[in-house]
Design a protein that fits this description.
elongated; eight-stranded mixed sheet; alpha/beta; 15% strand
């Protein structure tokens, strides 16, 4: 392979259009792979290097949001670990429900593409998590990391999910359809979600299978993928999975890093103040203020202390009144 450090350090941000972005990517990977337009909204980008293949499902928006250089997620793994990478890319959230995408995976199966690798890892989040699960059936024995995936948007199964009403006429019952059924041949699946997001938890329940490990990441909010990237956990999770070291205890150890993450701290603060948990609010505020200056935490602490003081004064007044009556 050509020098991966030089090739994949090339910034792709700031290009004038998505077509220009894809053309630049095609130039960069030309010697070691390809970039192929599948239809108006979907593309495939392949980089060949090592015997571990990471298959990611991403959107142009997620790449722009998560990568300062405007690069697909898997390119960091190509640079760091010498993995091969196949990126399925969509223009917007499509759940990759498109005949040309089905045909592309049919071609990979016919060509024995996945058989050339010692291990295959599928990854996706949200709508892309659905796609990672659904298309993993093309590579029996693959390992999966799914972040807040949907199981289906078929209204006969998931009519309770009203977030994606515009997708209800899209078929989720034809080929590569119901994601939980498509993971039956996977070696193992790790599904990460925040149980406080009720609809995500309901989708997660549909993935209950013997080869699925569900890991609850409470109070992380609706955009778990972004938080995992900010906490520098996602790549460590993928690397541990590849090395046969990803377990629930190890995930829990990694998840401890949330305690230092401002987004998690603020989300927890909102939950505690909303539930009037004044003593816990004070403990959380003390923890944060020992490490940095956080005005919302200082204000929440002062308000909690005032409420506790008022409650103590009211109790003392009531006790005194009771003594007088006695």
């Amino acid at each position: 392979m050509q020098n991966a450090t030089n090739t994949f350090d090339m910034p792709l941000s700031g290009l004038e259009s998505r077509e220009a972005w894809l053309a630049k990517v095609s130039d960069l990977v030309d010697e070691d792979g390809y970039a192929e337009r599948l239809d108006d909204r979907h593309s495939a980008i392949f980089v060949e290097d090592g015997k571990t293949l990471l298959v990611t499902f991403e959107t142009h928006d997620s790449i722009a949001r998560l990568s300062e250089d405007g690069q697909p997620l898997g390119w960091d793994m190509v640079k760091a670990l010498g993995w091969s990478h196949l990126c399925l890319l969509s223009d917007g959230d499509t759940w990759f429900r498109a005949p040309r995408v089905y045909g592309y995976f049919d071609r990979l199966i016919d060509d024995g593409f996945f058989e050339d690798f010692d291990q295959v890892i599928f990854y996706g989040a949200g709508p892309c998590g659905y796609a990672a699960a659904a298309f993993s059936v093309a590579a029996p024995g693959a390992r999966l990391v799914l972040v807040q995936p949907q199981a289906t948007l078929d209204p006969r199964v998931a009519e309770w999910d009203d977030r994606y009403r515009h997708m209800r006429r899209t078929s989720f019952t034809d080929r590569y359809g119901y994601a939980p059924d498509m993971i039956d041949a996977a070696q193992e699946v790790f599904l990460l979600y925040d149980p406080e997001i009720e609809l995500d938890a309901m989708h997660a329940s549909l993935f209950t299978r013997s080869n699925v490990t569900k890991f609850r990441m409470r109070h992380m909010g609706p955009d778990l993928e972004t938080v995992l990237m900010q906490m520098q956990l996602l790549y460590r999770i993928l690397a541990q999975l590849s090395a046969d070291k990803l377990t629930v205890p190890n995930l829990a150890r990694l998840f401890r890093n949330r305690r230092e993450h401002p987004g998690y701290q603020f989300g927890l603060l909102q939950r505690l103040t909303g539930a009037n948990r004044d003593r816990l609010t004070i403990r959380l505020a003390d923890f944060v203020l020992e490490r940095r200056n956080g005005r919302p935490f200082r204000k929440a602490r002062e308000a909690a202390e005032a409420r506790l003081a008022d409650a103590a004064a009211a109790n003392e007044t009531a006790s005194t009144a009771a003594d007088i009556q006695d």
